[in-house]
Amino acid sequence: MATKENSAGRQDFRSGFVAIVGRPNAGKSTLVNRLVGQKIAIVTSKPQTTRNRIQGIATKPQGQIIFIDTPGLHEADSALGRQMMQEVAAALEGIDVLLLMVDASRMHPHADELLLEKARRFSGKTILALNKVDRLTKPKLLPLIDCISQGVRICRHLAHLRARGRWM
């Protein structure tokens, strides 16, 4: 994160980049729209709608956060798919924080190695955001969090209750 100091040596303003990475239809674009406070990314149930990186800026008195919405991670089997995965790789360059967006109702422990590999390669801070946790029972949710956290340094966990529309 970049910090600007005033003449008294205090930190006045901070800025940083956060890349949001996850599988198709995990809720990445919806999250970016909410965090920025306006619709900047298309939201639809159709997978692979986001094909390029989309940046949105949230400005607060303390600083700015540039959120990077990325295409959904998948095994690329076409030229378009490979281009989309290049967009994801480019989004991870020079970021300060990686936010792993996971649809808790569709992820299976041990099954999403592609997503976890991206997190393992990132040396900065990683936040795990679980979406749609209200669709799982607690006995299924805790092992999922534990599985994702193994081998990935998670500095913060967030969970979203879809029915209530808020993050915890």
Summarize the SSE layout with pairings:
Elements: E1 2-5, E2 11-22, H1 28-36, E3 54-60, E4 63-69, H2 79-91, E5 97-103, H3 113-121, E6 125-131, H4 138-149, E7 154-161, E8 166-167
Parallel strand pairs: 2-4, 2-5, 5-6, 6-7
Antiparallel strand pairs: 1-2, 3-4, 7-8
Short key terms for the protein model shown above:
168 residues, alpha/beta, 8 strands
Plain-language structure description:
- With 168 residues, the protein is α/β, with parallel strands linked by helices.
- It is 26% helix and 32% strand.
- It is built from 4 helices and 8 strands, in the order E-E-H-E-E-H-E-H-E-H-E-E.
- Strands 1, 2, 3, 4, 5, 6, 7 and 8 form an 8-stranded mixed sheet that branches.
- A hairpin with a 5-residue loop joins strand 1 and strand 2.
- The two termini are 24 Å apart.
- The model has no long low-confidence stretch (mean pLDDT 78).
**Number of helices, counting only DSSP H or I runs of 4 residues or more:** 4
List low-confidence stretches.
none
Q: Which bin fits the share of residues in helices?
A: 25-40%
User: Major β-sheet, in short?
Assistant: 8 strands, mixed
Average residue pLDDT: 78
Number of beta strands: 8
Q: How large, in whole angstroms, is the Cα Rg?
A: 16 Å
Shape by Cα distribution: globular
From N to C, what is the helix and strand string?
EEHEEHEHEHEE
Strand content: 25-35%
Structural class: alpha/beta
Our measurement of the CA-to-CA distance between the termini, rounded to an integer number of angstroms, reads: 24 Å
